[in-house]
Write a structure and sequence with these properties.
The structure is a single chain. This protein is an alpha/beta fold and about 240 residues long. Helices cover about 40% and strands about 15% of the residues. The chain contains seven helices and seven strands. It has a seven-stranded parallel beta sheet, with helices on both faces. It is globular and about 50 Å long.
Length: about 240
């Protein structure tokens, strides 16, 4: 994609799933990729994004990035009445506060240099209600509002966008499904399947490239049509 070769890219949560696919896609585009993650590995800077001090220490080791993909996140299924203070704090601290700490660290450097691009991994859970994920839903909805606020504040030097994936068949997700469960979920998706991590990675790469230079403050949904309809848009129409 135009203008990506040679870019310095930071991907948080880049050792598995969407993050790993995204880091690999940017490498294939000729970018210099740094991964921040709690899981150690080659080319990974250890960092818990919920800890602002760790984020600052990690960015002190990185040349000013051109692109930040703030992807690190955690999801814990619980009835809302059963969510503990510790669980709530963990989810919000990682998904929302952690995204902000990394964006703040990146943008401080981008604004003092030649600008850049920040992309948050939000979720369709930010846009519609889902049972048993109240803390996760709240954190992702916060990312949508954060995206719009930062896009206004940091324009025109830094572009800020968010991607809202629907169901994505990561290796971890696939391991949790039985074939029957996977088929049942696919039936609810108009395109009849989950997205692949590589498809999300392609969208991230596009939003970071020169051809997407007029995107900022945007929230892009990639869900195979899952949120396009509602209860009344089923095959029988209203009341069916």
């Amino acid at each position: 994609m135009k203008g990506l070769a040679g870019k310095r890219v930071v991907v948080t949560g880049g050792t598995s799933g969407i993050g790993a696919a995204t880091a690999q896609r940017f490498r294939e585009e000729g970018c210099d990729v740094v991964v921040l993650a709690r899981t150690p590995g080659p080319g990974v800077i250890p960092c818990d994004v919920s800890d602002r001090a760790q984020v600052e220490a990690a960015f002190a080791r990185i040349d000013t990035p051109d692109v930040l993909i703030a992807n690190a996140g955690v999801s814990l299924r619980s009835r809302a009445a059963d969510i503990s203070a510790e669980q709530w704090d963990q989810v919000i601290a990682t998904n929302l506060s952690g995204a902000f700490w990394t964006a703040q660290a990146a943008a401080t450097r981008m604004l003092a240099a030649d600008g850049g691009c920040i992309i948050f991994t939000a979720s369709t859970n930010a846009l519609v209600g889902y049972r048993y994920y109240a803390d996760y839903n709240a954190s992702k909805a916060g990312l949508v509002a954060l995206t719009r606020s930062l896009a206004l504040e940091w324009a025109p030097t830094v572009r800020v966008n968010a991607v809202c994936p629907g169901y994505v068949l990561t290796p971890m997700q696939e391991a949790e499904y039985t074939p029957e469960m996977l088929a049942a979920v696919n039936e609810r998706i108009p395109l009849g399947r989950h997205a692949t991590p590589a498809e999300l990675a392609g969208l991230f790469a596009y939003l970071a490239c020169d051809e997407a230079a007029f995107f900022t403050g945007s929230v892009i949904v990639m869900d195979g049509g899952e949120t396009a309809g509602s209860v009344v848009s089923g095959p029988g129409g209203p009341g069916a």
